[in-house]
Amino acid sequence: MALQIYNTQTKKKEDFQTVEPGKVKMYVCGPTVYDFLHIGNYRGAIFYNFVRNWLEKRGYEVTYVYNYTDVDDKIINRANEEGVTSQEISEKYIKEFEKDYELLQLRPHTHNPKVSDNMDNIINFVKGLVEKEKAYVVDGDVYFDVKAFPDYGMLSCKNVDDMQSGHRIDVDTRKKNPADFALWKSAKEGEVSWDSPWGEGRPGWHIECSAMSRSILGDSLDIHGGGLDLVFPHHENEIAQSEGLTGKKYVRYWMHNNMLEFGNQKMSKSLGNVRTGRSFLEQFDGEILKYMMLQAHYRSTIDFSDAQVALAVKGLARIYSSLAHAQSLIAAEGLALVPVPEKFQSVLSDADTGIEEAFDDDFNTAEALGKIFEVVRAYNNIARKPGKVKPDQKAVAEVFFHWLRNQGSIMAMFQQDPAGYLESLDMRLLAEKGIKPEDVESLLIERAKAREAKDYQKSDEIRDKLMDMGISIQDSATGTAWEVTK
Prior knowledge:
single chain; Rossmann fold; Four Helix Bundle (Hemerythrin (Met), subunit A); four-stranded antiparallel β-sheet; 15 helices; about 15% strand; elongated
């Protein structure tokens, strides 16, 4: 099966073919660094990390560019409020984002260009558009003339003649058309600025990505990614200015991830439901955030309600519980080496095929996770049995453990120490319930003594008490294990 990608521009899935055979040039719009990033920004960071991993797994050499917008109105306003420079604000929040990125255990990008380091590239880009009469100068400002680019609206399917001044379109009577957008803005008091052929000023938002991507990846990209909210005007304007300058197709495949919702409401400052990625990582952890972002197809919305977080915890607990169990069986000694049962090998083979087909079908992580749970279920049926460990159980555990680690690595998941991760989940859930771990251990010791004395009535009473506390227990040949019911 060929890899297919849904192209926002054509509104259909297309077979993936790169500009240069075997190589992928990929650009994703990164954050504007003026504050801690809201949790929605992390959907793209997590998803496109997976896209790069899968492309590499398929044998492509990927150059992945993820920029930092460090010149912007919001950064300038924040700097003025705090009485510091724009650079101090942007550098601070780049470092904070990189801390979060490390907590998520995502791979570094190939390049992280910053706007402030690309001013010459941006100015030369704008000069080229003015020379080609795709842009015009008014009082030190430079605007792109959308009427000079007949294909304007090809991505968002908007018609220039139907556009009115309003949402995200600057009202400026000096413009030839309300939809014309700023490539260069003349300097204002209290703003950082650079020298240019049009006087002191700074770049507009849209030109920044076009100039940075071109400086590293050239005139044509294979994949350009970003959030759905960037389709218009940002990505539409990128196409106009890039193709207006070069005359070449700018992007082969436009990919856009959908938004997050909180209790079926869009996240917005006006609703007071904006949450930072840092606050989520501090309360929960990166594994839960990655699971929540990838358990739905990237083009669908995700509900970040408390109920959905609880479901993510439950799903991760099932997977890590099986990994921990497999790890304990692998450590069992004195067992003969036997082949893995054909039935389980067949389950793995079917899952491999299903996961590959899911990833090749527009990066369907939701479908792939479903296949992983099918394997977990099969493993539990074969290997999680009471009594003495048998050689075939150990053989199944060995292949299952390494198979799941390998599949999970593509999504940057399931790489934690299983027992340690389960313990951290349990400690957090116990704290939420107001239960001390030592109280659970004390009851388990009391139950073990009752079982040893064959006082099964008392043993059952303690078990029921633990269940009422939300603690489930599992007796085995090696002892009693417990966990918080998820």
